[in-house]
Design goal:
heterotrimer; A mainly alpha (613); B mainly alpha (166); C mainly alpha (102); A: 613 residues; mainly alpha; two-stranded antiparallel ribbon; 25 helices; globular; C: 102 residues; Helix Hairpins
């Protein structure tokens, strides 16, 4: 089936644009970048068509990467139903965003570099999804982290961008540490990294071990998917260009954690404590992030916290045993969150760079297409019935109720808040009077067409792609039965949120300000994201940096190692200075040294020859 | 008879050698060196090296030393003035000399078979015929090489000693 | 006894060699130093011939012969160098020729 072609096309695009693209015209760069992703998408379609029903995984082995003792890691790709879903999302949404980026980045510098990095990201993400063992997945995992760093810090001349890139990478590393420990445990217990073999042996392993592995994998997932406590990098990652936020920090990379936990569902199915922890972490993150999203003024920050919150939802799905529902929400979230970000990008593009919603308003007349498509996404994410978000969110909440009702109720509250802040953003941006000073203009078709396609997917995608049914055979887990009461409650919560937002921002614009004034301190707390970043800085970053500076740098490196190395040099120089005194220029002293040497040499030769005893 | 010959000429050689080192005017040293070479020629005869003895007198004493005398007279070198030595020479010179002497004498004693005695006329292999045979067969390559060496020396000496063209 | 042990020749050679070294180390005049070198070469020749006699071979004579040839060539070139040095420096004091020091 030539699975290796799927990631190869974007890699080729990266190499061509990256190495040779300096002399290409814009159109040529576009050609390579878009063609590579589109070819990948087409090949995915061809492969899935050829594989048919996928009752079992289709594995292709390419070469042995590492063989050492009992460690045998091969470069293997496998496609099963879960992989199929992920492949379609990554290549499909990826292609749309690539096309959009042509328009968005048209006025930006570093055009070729942007598309090269974007292609590289696609390569790593596809490797991650296609991997048939933990080690290769980790390669893709790290690779997407790298590309995220490169793209967040794309405007590398701006300090806040590079700092955000560093933050993303470093926080990810903490998660990766957990992932690495999990991999070590897996190898120790199962002697392999191969998915098929690990998951075959997992049911027989002791529960404690499985729980530990599951928790460590969760740590890794928290880092990559921005869950508590490792979510802090995602809001800052908005420093990157908006297509990056859409592709990497909404639709694909951040979902890698969800994918990974879903992939390891066998382990979690046999370690209920770990699975429950996932649900708790997920709901806590969802609720927490939603509260922060209520008070933000930067349009991208609202959506960033929304992403964190929705990722929490996905983890709730996975943690409640409804793996299919979690993946379902991953797919629908990719539709409407990518659309929201791309739409925000369209707004920002229309306003020539303005991101503060307090300077927007009344734009629905000026950029109607953007408004229309974003409205579709907003309704989807709020859970309006029969749109995509409705189906997936509902499946998760129903499963959560089976696990633990309190998770369900928090989920309902979060759904209400989600609807509220998304529609708050919509009303602030598109309605009322225009509060800014720019000249808004609609975006070009190359940006609008992807928006329209995503809008259609957001509206109909839930009904068109019944993911849980598709994955039912894969996950061997019982789906929770439909419960209309629960569904009604969550839908009602959504509508209450929309209504409240309409009240505060559409009909009575001053109400929000007054309310914020009344709850004063609480508002400040939420607006400043609960000062989490500041707390991390004081508790962890500062002591670490200070300690490194004082101990590791000054004492060990400068004084110790440099001192030793320089000391060797200094001693060599001293010895040299001592020996230099022999070179006096006086021939007779030279002759004396020669004679002395000759005497000693003859003596030693005589000793060696046994003549002198 | 051989013993007396050896003792007499050995003593002359030693005394002249000491003179070479001790005399202050170079010309005295040169003449003493001629004396050393002459005594050595006699000793070669004692050892049966007739050809070499002749070569010693003709080439060494007759040509090389004459060259030395010419140069000394050309340079008009005067007597040496007493001056200080370098530190190294002062410190190490005498011990090195003593060590060298002891070592060489010891080796000499050890390497020679004690029963070998030297008698005048008991070795006939040192005549011109034997030397010639060995020179042009076994030692042909060094012979040719030294020819080239002498050529180079001639050219070098001429170039070095030439007066500058004004 | 009427015969001379070979070792006596070798000890004589050792003594002559040491005297040559002494002259080389302790004399200041370049020409005298050169003559001490010649003395050393002669001592070596003597030991070659003595060993040739001991082993009843003519090879030692040949070695001594070549030493002589080379000594002659060396004397020629060396004296030419001394002449040049004298012309440039005006001195025959070996301690004054010390531009090779560090």
């Amino acid at each position: 089936m030539q699975l290796w072609l799927i990631p190869l096309f974007p890699l080729a695009g990266f190499l061509v644009n990256g190495l040779l693209g300096r002399r290409f015209s814009r159109s040529l760069v576009n050609l390579f970048a878009i063609a590579s992703v589109l070819l990948s998408f087409v090949w995915v379609l061809k492969t899935l068509y050829g594989l048919g029903d996928l009752p079992a995984a289709h594995v292709e082995h390419y070469f042995t990467w590492i063989r050492s003792g009992s460690l045998d890691i091969g470069c293997d790709f496998s496609v099963d139903r879960l992989t199929a879903v992920m492949l379609l999302v990554v290549t499909g949404i990826g292609s749309l965003i690539h096309i959009y980026a042509i328009g968005y980045m048209a006025h930006e510098g570093g055009y070729r570099r942007f598309f090269a990095y974007l292609n590289l990201f696609m390569f790593f993400m596809l490797t991650l999804v296609l991997a048939a063992n933990f080690a290769l997945l980790f390669v893709g995992w790290e690779g997407v982290g790298l590309c995220s760093y490169l793209l967040i810090g794309f405007y590398f001349d701006k300090p806040f961008a590079t700092t955000a890139g560093n933050k993303a990478f470093i926080v990810n590393r903490i998660g990766d540490f957990g992932f690495s420990l999990a991999m070590f445990l897996i190898f120790v217990n199962f002697q392999t990294f191969d998915f098929a073999r690990v998951f075959a042996q997992a049911p027989g392993a002791p529960v404690g071990t499985l729980t530990l592995i599951g928790l460590l994998l969760l740590v890794g997932a928290c880092g990559k998917s921005a869950q508590l406590p490792l979510y802090v990098w995602l809001p800052d990652a908005m420093a990157g260009p908006t297509p990056v936020s859409a592709l990497i920090h909404a639709a694909t990379m951040v979902t890698a954690g969800v994918y990974m936990t879903a992939r390891a569902w066998v382990i979690y199915a046999h370690a209920p404590a770990a699975m429950h922890t996932i649900a708790i972490v997920g709901i806590a993150t969802a609720f927490f992030a939603a509260t922060i999203g209520l008070a933000q003024n930067d349009i991208k920050k609202v959506f960033a916290y929304s992403t964190v919150s929705q990722l929490g939802y996905m983890f709730v799905g996975v943690g409640s045993g409804a793996f299919g529902a979690g993946i379902y929400h991953l797919v629908t979230h990719a539709f409407f969150k990518a659309l929201l970000f791309l739409g925000a990008g369209s707004v920002i593009h229309a306003l020539s760079g303005e991101q503060d919603m307090s300077k927007m308003g009344g734009l629905w007349k000026k950029i109607p297409w953007t408004f229309g498509t974003m409205a579709c996404a907003a309704m989807a994410i709020a859970g309006v019935p029969w749109l995509s978000g409705f189906y997936s969110k509902d499946a998760i909440l129903v499963a959560a109720y089976q696990q633990a009702p309190w998770i369900y109720w928090l989920g309902v509250a979060t759904a209400g808040m989600t609807a509220f802040y998304v529609f708050r953003a919509m009303f602030l941006t598109f309605f009322g009077d225009y509060r800014g000073d720019r000249h808004p203009h609609e975006s070009p078709p190359v940006m609008l067409v992807p928006l329209v396609i995503l809008a259609l997917l957001s509206l109909a995608g839930g009904a068109l792609f019944p993911v849980p049914e598709f994955l039912r055979g894969f996950f061997h887990a019982a789906e929770a039965p439909e419960d209309f009461t629960l569904m009604a409650i969550s839908v009602a919560s959504g509508f209450i949120g929309i209504a409240l937002a309409a009240l505060m921002y559409l009909f009575k614009p001053g109400m929000a300000g007054a309310f914020a004034g009344r709850i004063g301190g609480l508002y400040k707390l939420v607006y400043n994201k609960y000062f989490v970043d500041e707390a991390y800085d004081a508790a962890l970053v500062r002591p670490l940096v200070g300690g490194s500076r004082a101990v590791l740098w000054k004492a060990i490196d400068a004084a110790g190692i440099d001192g030793a190395v320089n000391g060797v040099g200094a001693r060599a120089r001293d010895v040299g200075a001592l020996l230099q005194r022999i070179q006096s220029g006086n021939i007779r002293s030279y002759a004396t040294w020669v004679a002395l040497g000759a005497v000693l040499l003859i003596f030693v030769m005589g000793l060696a020859g046994g003549i002198v005893r | 008879m051989d013993l007396i010959l050896f003792l007499v000429f050995g003593a002359i050689a030693l005394v002249c050698a000491v003179n070479v080192v001790v005399q202050r005017h170079p010309i005295s040293s040169a003449v003493s060196l001629i004396g050393v070479m002459g005594s050595l020629a006699i000793l070669y005869l004692l050892l049966g090296a007739e050809f070499l003895a002749a070569a010693q007198v003709i080439v060494y004493a007759g040509a090389v030393m004459v060259l030395f005398v010419f140069v000394i007279m050309l340079l008009n070198a005067g007597t040496e003035i007493r001056q200080g030595q370098s530190f190294t020479v002062q410190l190490l010179g005498v011990p090195v000399l003593i060590g060298l002497l002891v070592l060489l004498a010891f080796l000499g004693r050890l390497l020679s078979r004690p029963e070998t005695m030297v008698r005048f006329g008991d070795f006939h292999g040192g005549g011109p015929k034997a030397v010639g045979e060995a020179l042009f067969t076994t030692f042909l390559l060094p012979f040719e090489a030294t020819s080239v060496l002498i050529l180079i020396a001639i050219v070098g000496a001429m170039v070095l000693a030439r007066k500058e063209m004004d | 006894m009427q015969q001379v042990p070979t070792s006596w020749f070798l000890m004589l050679a050792a003594a002559l060699f040491t005297l040559g070294v002494a002259g080389f180390l302790f004399r200041r005049n370049i020409v005298t130093v050169f003559m001490s070198i010649e003395l050393m070469l002669n001592a070596v020749n003597l030991s070659f011939v003595a060993f040739a006699h001991q082993h009843r071979q003519v090879d030692g004579h040949l070695y001594a012969f070549f030493v002589m040839v080379v000594a002659a060539a060396e004397a020629a070139v060396g004296l030419a160098i001394i002449l040049t040095v004298f012309r440039n420096r005006g001195t025959l004091n070996i301690d004054d020729v010390d531009s090779m020091k560090d």
